[in-house]
């Protein structure tokens, strides 16, 4: 075996060791999220997921299902599980019809809040600014709740189960809920400043939903060492 061939095999073995697709090399620690060790590969997956979510969410009322399927796809990817797109589309087929109720409800609430903000903007009434501020905050909370519910959804749990479990998730990790609200704010600001980045930032928001719930586990694991 030539030296060049040996080096190529060693590089391949180390790469497979890092991404979890092959046996480990040496006694180094195993990555918690082996699929996320390649920064550029993860970026590409996030961008592709953003495009898929945008495509499925075009009818608007399908946005909850699009988010849930994209979040589950990224969760599988960072865990180095089977993340073929066939599983993404299977999640879409499983959740799209039952999720229409959630989507229609979210759209109705958003339209009412937008109308409230519009009236507060054009009305010259005392306290109109307060009504408008309440509308913006309520919209942010609605979007954060949608991210939380989409992250909790699974074909086994269903949409009703995801809605019921959402308050418990907030009570268990209130700071995580704040992070999701910050994510909503970042999405809004980036989209307002540069609309073409909407697809990419939606993928980043889906990744945030994957990352936020596990950040405390990482601290606990580090503290126990």
Automatic annotation (TrEMBL):
The keyword Transit peptide does not apply. Keywords: Membrane, Transmembrane, Transmembrane helix. It comes from Microbacterium protaetiae. Residues 1-15 have a biased composition (Basic residues). This is DUF624 domain-containing protein. Residues 1-28 are annotated as: Disordered. The lineage of its organism: Bacteria, Bacillati, Actinomycetota, Actinomycetes, Micrococcales. The chain crosses the membrane at residues 52-74, 95-115, 127-153, 174-192, 198-216. The keyword Oxidoreductase does not apply.
């Amino acid at each position: 075996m030539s030296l060049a061939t040996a080096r190529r095999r060693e590089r391949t073995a180390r790469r497979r060791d890092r991404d979890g697709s092959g046996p480990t090399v040496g006694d180094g620690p195993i990555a918690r999220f082996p699929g996320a060790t390649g920064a550029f590969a993860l970026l590409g997956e996030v961008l592709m997921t953003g495009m898929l979510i945008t495509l499925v969410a075009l009818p608007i009322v399908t946005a909850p299902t699009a988010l849930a399927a994209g979040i589950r796809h990224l969760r599988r990817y960072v865990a180095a599980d089977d993340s073929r797109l066939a599983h993404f589309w299977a999640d879409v087929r499983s959740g799209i019809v039952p999720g229409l109720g959630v989507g229609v409800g979210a759209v109705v609430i958003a339209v009412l809040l937008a109308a409230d903000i519009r009236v507060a903007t054009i009305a010259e009434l005392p306290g109109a600014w307060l009504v408008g501020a309440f509308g913006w905050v309520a919209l942010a909370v609605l979007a954060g709740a949608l991210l939380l519910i989409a992250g909790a959804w699974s074909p086994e749990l269903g949409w009703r189960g995801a809605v019921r479990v959402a308050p418990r998730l907030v009570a268990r990790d209130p700071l995580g809920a704040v992070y999701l609200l910050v994510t909503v704010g970042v999405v809004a600001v980036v989209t307002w400043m540069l609309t073409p980045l909407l697809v990419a930032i939606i993928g980043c928001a889906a990744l945030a939903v994957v990352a936020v719930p596990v950040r405390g586990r990482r601290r606990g694991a580090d503290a126990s060492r």
